[in-house]
Design brief:
By secondary structure, this protein is α+β, with helices and mostly antiparallel strands. Helices cover about 35% and strands about 45% of the residues. Strands 2-1-6-5-4-3 form a six-stranded mixed β-sheet. Helix 1 (about 5-15) runs antiparallel to helix 2. The longest helix is centred in the middle third of the chain and has 14 residues, at about 45-55. The radius of gyration is 15 Å and the shape is globular.
């Protein structure tokens, strides 16, 4: 299985150990959205927390309509993230990843996603934080 397929399978299954092994030391993950430069950067540890949360909170979490093309230093992938929230709200979010690879490991991910489609995910996370407070 190639790196990109292993990456997607580990994300959807919540396999943090495999994900960590796929990232190079010091890898960074950038996502579009509010913030300086139109987005924000995450460390691998922060990213793993986010991905683990997704795998725990999205029933039927999957990537579909995957289109992938090689780049000289990695690949670009377009896909639709799909799943269902605990309250049965469906989630469908189109995204594009630019993944930089060196030495067989991911050194950088730049994710451009439909931020409005992620509103139900942000609402759930906020409700969970409020319930813990």
């Amino acid at each position: 299985m190639e790196l990109a397929d292993r990456f997607m399978a580990a994300i959807t299954s919540g396999d943090v150990d495999t994900l960590r092994s796929l990232y190079a030391p010091g890898a960074l993950i950038w996502r579009n959205g509010p913030g300086e430069g139109g987005g924000s950067e995450q460390s691998v540890d922060d990213n793993l927390r986010t991905l683990r949360w997704l795998s725990r909170n999205l029933d039927g979490f999957r990537y579909e309509e995957i289109r992938r093309d090689p780049l000289p230093d990695g690949y670009v992938q377009r896909h639709v993230l799909r799943g269902t929230l605990p309250d049965r709200t469906p989630v469908e979010m189109a995204a594009c990843l630019f993944v930089t690879v060196a030495g067989g490991r991911i050194t950088r991910v730049e994710e451009y996603a439909d931020t409005r489609a992620g509103d139900p995910l942000r609402d759930l996370a906020a409700a969970q934080r409020a319930a813990r407070a």
